[in-house]
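DM from R.C. (forwarded with permission)

"hey, sorry to bug you on a friday — could you get me a structure for this? deadline for the figure draft is monday and I only need the backbone to look sensible"
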Amino acid sequence: AKFDRTYTGNLGLTATRLLGKASSLIINVSGTGSNQEHDRTDDFTDYGMTLSLDTSLGNQKLSPYLILTKQDPKTDADNFSLMYGIGGYFQVGDRNSFSYGYNYTDSKADHNLSDSTADETNAIGHGYSLGHDFAVNSIFSTSTSIGYSDSDAKDDTNDYETYDFNLRINFGFPWAYVSIGDALSFNDYKKADTSVDSGRIRSDVTNTFDIILTKTVGDFFPSLDPNRSIFINLSYEKVISEANILNYDYITDSFSLSFSKSLKLN
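My reply, with the result:
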């Protein structure tokens, strides 16, 4: 595995149409391809479509949405998912805003010759979230959120509940944007998986720490980016999972470097 590589490419297209003065319709279609050199288990093609509406109702900003996806793994069963839900937020004064959301998910997998038990993970899920953003001043802000989700699968060993707690602090410095986050996720399964441990019901907690730095390329090379419109994004993420079953204990470190630029075509 040390000498294996996976190459992934993504292409997406988003269209927005205004509906009156306070609403807009957004349509996004995307495709992702993954190719692995040796093992081939990471070879897959993804397709997705998102429909969302941004609108207002009194002081509430509402965004109902519908998401359809299909994943076609080369060595496994095809997966289909449907998600719909609604998110909203409202402001209280100049410094506080509150957000909330609900989503429903229906995930299914097909049988095939290489995976005759794929549909055991077919699941119906419900998710709920609450959040609060606070602007201390023009530079410093905080974001906190809590969440709960429940997944009921065809095979009860895949049934679980998740509790999420997130904290993020943001610094809008003149020289860069820096965001630091820490999240805890508690997963409680409802039935023991006899294929792993017949006498113990899985329970685990995952801690995710990340730091993101965004800066314009023009700050380093003014002649290359005189309008300060090309952004360089650096991020680091560390995930620590601790479970009562050793199979699910792990630590991962991830680093990312990306460049982004927005273009106006009209």
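R.C.: lifesaver. The CA atoms of residues 72 and 78 lie 5 Å apart.
me: no worries. The longest strand covers residues 6-19.
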